Amino acid sequence: MSSAFNIVVLISGTGSNLASIIDKQQQYNYKVSLVVSNQKSAKGLDFAKQNNIPIFTFNWDKSDRLLLDVQNIIRQHNCQLIVLAGFMKILPSPFIDEFKQKIINIHPSLLPKYPGLNTHQRVIDNKDQTHGASVHYVNAQLDAGEIISQTSINVDLNSNAESLGKQLLFREHSLLPYTIHLIGQNRVEWRDDKLYFDHKILTTPIIIYD
Ligand code: GRF
Question: Mind listing the pLDDT tens digit for each residue in 1-35?
């Protein structure tokens, strides 16, 4: 088996996506070598500790210098991919530029629909029949980089924002680890600023069903 693909995961809170990423490390042949959080008390850090994964926390309010520390520590760990999994801050351009085409984010909507916050409520308010989550590359615009993969769910008439969020989160837990796997296996890759999936230019997101 080839050596594991080395990733860092950035979180701000509960970290259920981080937990699913950690759980599927062996199955998908990647390795979480570092977890970074802008919240010292983020519950998700417990999953890292339980699995002996190094953690680094920093205080966003003093972001300039500390983000340089984050950049340094990511470099030291030779991370091949930076995964934003419930990381609730917008990374500044110098950070994004340094790790161009190496940062992905999971967003709880079928992008380009509903960038930003409160996606579940917006789906309900608009009486959408389907909802979903997207994994996309991060660029300087909010939730606007190239979309890699999506999963969708039907919106039940009785859903509220909380139940819908819960239902979707369950699907996110498959979508994100599998997408990391595709990137680690070079099945998803950048060539000359174009995104390829299995050697063909990716024109529509890869749909992941379960
Ligand atoms: C997820 O819904 C993710 O799509 C969004 O933030 C939430 C994080 O949840 N970006 P968790 O911290 O992984 O449980």
Answer: 568 999 999 999 999 999 999 999 999 999 999 99
Task: Check residue 104 and give its pLDDT.
Answer: 98
- pLDDT attached to residue 66: 82
- What residue's CA is closest to ligand 1, atom 8? 86
Q: Which CATH architecture has domain 5-107+134-150+172-207?
A: 3-Layer(aba) Sandwich (3.40)
Residue of 77, 107, 131, 136 with catalytic role: 107
Q: Is the CB of 14 under 6 A from ligand 1?
A: yes
Token pair 């917008």 in the structure block, residue = 90
Q: Identify whether the C-beta of residue 195 lies closer than 8 Å to the C-beta of residue 188.
A: yes
* Greatest distance between any 2 Cα atoms in the chain: 49
